[in-house]
Amino acid sequence: xxQQAILPNTENYFMYKELSETGRQKIYTKDINVxxxxxxxxxxxxxxxxxxxxxxxxxxxxxxxxxxxxxxxLSLFDYYFNLSMWNCIILAGGTIESKHLWFxxxxxxxxxxxxxxxxxxxxxxxxxxxGISIYELNRHLNNMIDGSLSTYSYIDIFSxxxxxxxxxxxxxxxxxxxxxxxxxxxxxxxxxxxxDVKKVGMEYTNEVIKFIENSDHCLADSFRAEEGVNxxxxxxxxxNIGSKPDGRGGIFPTIINRSFLNGGVCDxxxxxxxxxxxxxxxxxxxxxxxxxxxxxxxxxxxxxxTILHSDxxxxxxxxxxxxxxxxxxxxxxxxxxxxxxxxPKGMEYLLDAKKDKNLVGEKLYFxxxxxxxxxxxxxxxxxRCYGNLxxxxxxxxxxxxxxxxxxxxxxxxxxxxxxxxxxxxxxLSWCDDFYNFFEADFNII
Length: 445
Description:
It is a single chain. Helices cover about 45% and strands about 5% of the residues. By secondary structure, it is an alpha+beta fold.
């Protein structure tokens, strides 16, 4: 039986008084505008502040009727996240239609970025807000995005209630409930060929993560959000440490057949193998981070004069295209917003990674900053060769930005060497006659 609601501060719920009294309410998105959006958000926050622990509040629903006439029911919490995301569109003068509903399976950096890119930036980065320049427009749009995403910080108010802490008891509960989970927590890879230890260990880890994601485990939200926990490091902590590189291009001739949670490095060989990884990482960082920084400096200086053309409507006459085979959807996403042709002398199209999935497997000819004719003349890369990202990056040094993005990834890998070191063992296949004369024991014949 649902408990009686105790939400006495009705004056703080503003236009959501009916929701606080009945648990249900209709809201028309056409009535949410720049002047009252913050009041809508404050009302929802106040309801959660006064009763988030109540079953009555947890089962509240808002019937949202969009400007295009379609409607849907959203829980109080889903409605809060949608209100936050809608702020961008409202600030830009748009109306909230059903296409603006945000209902991802998991809230991650990727799903947030995808929504902002497709529903806001693509729609408004060429808009005319009172005749302001393209440079002012970018600052304007960035402020809108920042103002919307900053509302996520209100979640911190409920941190004690959400109890996002780490504990071992949740793992023990899953072990007691699911025999398979318990088996995975005591993974024995001693009989697995060494070249397959890492692969089998990650398969077990992914299975463990699936159990956790479908439970109330303390790490469930981290895995769903793809934040806070690295699966490879989690494998060593909770499933199996496995094989380790020796720092000289090979691997140690034995595996650590435990996890850190289940025995860890409890003997001398295991302690030596694990600590050797730390020494190798220190040597890599000491010898290479300085070189990486020098390389980054040279890359930045060399590309500082790479700029965009001053006229955003100018299209160069380059006929030198970059030939790319779109081998996967991942590659397709890399070229979102870029201009391409199916034939070098054919029509030119703008690639939309979401709509143009039929292009996977095709060979396309892309306009490229590398072959832009106006860039070759020293006039800057034209917007057509750079792609639609030019409308976002127009007020920054694009050459310096590209250099920093490329070099920072390398430097960060070197700094994170301890966590990135892993074994990569090639499997050797022998003919049947080999075993008539030899025995293969790990790396010894």
